[in-house]
Amino acid sequence: MIRNTIVAAATLLLSAAPALALSKRTCDRVEVNGMQMYYEVSGKGEPIVVLHGAHMNIKTMGEIIPMLAKTHTVYALEFQGHGRTTDIDRPITYDNLADDVAVFMDRVGLKKADVFGYSMGAATAMQVAIRHPEKVDQLITASAGYSMSGFQPAYLEMIPTMTFDMFASFEEEWRKLAPNPEGFAEFIDKMIALEHEPLEWEEHVKELKQPTLLITGDADVVTLEHTVAMFRLLGGGIMGDMGVPLPASRLAVLPATSHTAIITQANLLHAFIEPFLQGITPAGMFDAQ
Q1: Position 283 in a domain
Q2: 255 inside domain
Q3: Span 136-144, mean pLDDT?
Q4: Integer distance in angstroms from the first to the last C-alpha of the chain?
Q5: Are strands 46-51 and 35-43 parallel, antiparallel or unpaired?
Q6: 34-47 pLDDT, tens digit each
Q7: Which residue has the higher pLDDT, 21 or 257?
């Protein structure tokens, strides 16, 4: 989720992400809830909205965007105060971010789309599906949780110690894109407040109807047990090969993968995401040939 377990690694994501290999993309801004939201559109095919993580932007999502653009029309946006999107006099909360995505979709003429989010973007994607279910076709979350109890104890212990100084190394990269380069301290205050936002969404997750792909690292900020519990809330975890269709939702665990390492493995992510979006299910020995 947004929970940046290793600040130094997050800084590396900001400063050393691979350049996008998009040959054709359009860039624009649109008014969303009082802010000027920056977004890029690339590719051709069924639409998918891509939501970045905390302290990130479109570029730092890396190569997964151009990979998805080979078969989909990708709408990648930048959240409040992130990248080239303006900040406004409003807290950064998951409810607010999700409502921003819904308004963005209306502004660009997207009635419904697949939604893929990483980290903070994954939590936001979940809230879009919860608050605006009519707008989400298929849901993909990379490193998401539905309850604070599902986070690693080491991370929960770190949250109360968060200060501005922990994020000071982000400022130089942030200022390069920010419409108001002098607003970094206020932005960080909002992001620290977001880290304290309670997550208790179990009852809402149970009600989700969208096919959902959960992606996690085996050394993620959310525990494996929590992710499996969420998978079961979505109807997953049954035994296959019993003559009944598999659940619509799926679970993928990336090996030897920390929270910040998830988004750097674009080839592996794409190998999970694309078959899910296409509805491709591996055949078992007992499936009709």
Answers
A1: no
A2: yes
A3: 98
A4: 40
A5: unpaired
A6: 999 999 999 999 99
A7: 257
**Count of structural domains within the chain:** 1
Pair 79, 52: CB distance under 8 Å: yes
What contacts 106, CB < 8 A, 6 or more positions away?
Answer: none
Q: Is residue 102 part of a domain?
A: yes
Under 8 Å between Cβ of 8 and 55: no
Specify the pTM. Answer: 0.93
CA atoms within 13 A of residue 120's CA, in its CB half-sphere:
29
pLDDT of residue 20: 44
Summarised one tens digit per residue, pLDDT across range 87-121 is 999 999 999 999 999 999 999 999 999 999 999 99
Please name the amino acid found at residue 170. F
286 within a domain of the structure (yes/no): no
Q: Using CA atoms, how far apart are residues 289 and 287, in angstroms rounded to an integer? A: 6
Position 287 scores a pLDDT of 76
DSSP string, the chain: ----S-HHHHHHHHHHPPPP--SSEEEEEEEETTEEEEEEEEE-SEEEEEE--TT--SGGGTTHHHHHTTTEEEEEE--TTSTTSPP-SS---HHHHHHHHHHHHHHTT-SSEEEEEETHHHHHHHHHHHH-GGGEEEEEEES--SBGGGB-HHHHHHGGG--GGGGGGGHHHHHHH-SSTT-HHHHHHHHHHHHT---B-HHHHHT--S-EEEEEEEE-SB-HHHHHHHHHHTT----SSSSSPPPS-EEEEEEEEETTTSTT-HHHHHHHHHHHHHT-----TTS--
Q: Rounded CA gap, 32 and 76, in Å?
A: 15
pLDDT at 262 over 80: yes
- Identify the CATH number of the domain in which residue 121 sits: 3.40.50.1820
Mean pLDDT of the chain: 92
The residue segments making up the domain with residue 214 are 7-278
